[in-house]
Amino acid sequence: MKPRGDNQEYKFPRITEKLFLHAARQYISSAYPNPDRIGCPGREGLEILARRGRAASTEEIEHIATCSPCFLEYSAVRQAWKRRRLLLMAESIAAGLIVAIMSLVFISSHTSTRSPKKSQHNTVDLARAVPEKRILDLRPYDSTRGDQERNRGKGPLALERVVFDLTIQLPLGMAEGKYLFDLVDSSGVQRLEASGEATIIDYVTTARTTFDLRGFSPGPFTLAVRRVNRSVLISCPIEIR
């Protein structure tokens, strides 16, 4: 196919399947506004379809594909459900590894030729090195700068001097992406910096990271949450015991 007045052969730009699907999603997301949500199956119905609770009918598929609000809501639930499944698989693998490590520790402690007291001491040290799972709920702490003083008046969150595999739940409105978690002592010195990628899990912005507090002294600390190269978004008191 040649354009008029041009002797050179016309070539269409190469369109990959990934690019085509991306363009289709972008188009459907805004091409079919339905502010009154006429004919929509509702949140519960979309969640059942997104999580493959049952097969979608032809009418439901046609509606979602021609209703921008339903398409966006279905896509968000579908993405969150996929992340949830991956997280559960990762947690199952991690739990299996911990059980295997603890089994080796138990066998070693009973077959060692050292004195019982020293063997017990080694077992405790190894057990303390195994990350302890903990959920750190920061949702009660406001993420706006004007509320930082009010956050300081809330009670501290307690953490022991062990290695933590932390699941940190962030306040409402905080976006997905990479976050930095700084632990600052009472004199204002940063004692620990950890990072974690936050995703939305069950409608809560959630990040996973590791804190190694074994070398810390007991006392009050402040946990500051920020994005990379940005100022602190929220801060909350921490009591290390």
Description:
The protein has two domains: 64 residues, no CATH class; 111 residues, Immunoglobulin-like (Sandwich), CATH 2.60.40. Helix content is 39%, strand content 27%. It is built from six helices and eight strands. It has an eight-stranded mixed β-sheet. Helix 1 crosses helix 4, helix 2 packs across helix 4 and helix 4 runs antiparallel to helix 5. The longest helix is centred in the middle third of the chain and has 44 residues. The N and C termini lie far apart (76 Å).
Number of helices: 6
Spell the H/E element sequence: HHHHHEHEEEEEEE
Structural class: alpha+beta
CATH topology of the largest domain: Immunoglobulin-like
Low-confidence stretches: none
Number of domains: 2
Distance between the termini: 76 Å
Rg value: 26 Å
Overall mean confidence score, pLDDT = 79
Which sheet architecture does the biggest sheet show? 8 strands, mixed
Shape type:
globular
Helix content: 25-40%
The CATH architecture of the largest domain is: Sandwich
CATH class designation of the largest domain: Mainly Beta
How do the strands line up in the largest sheet?
Answer: 1-3-6-5-4-7-8-2
Approximately how much beta-strand content do the residues carry?
25-35%
Number of β-strand runs: 8
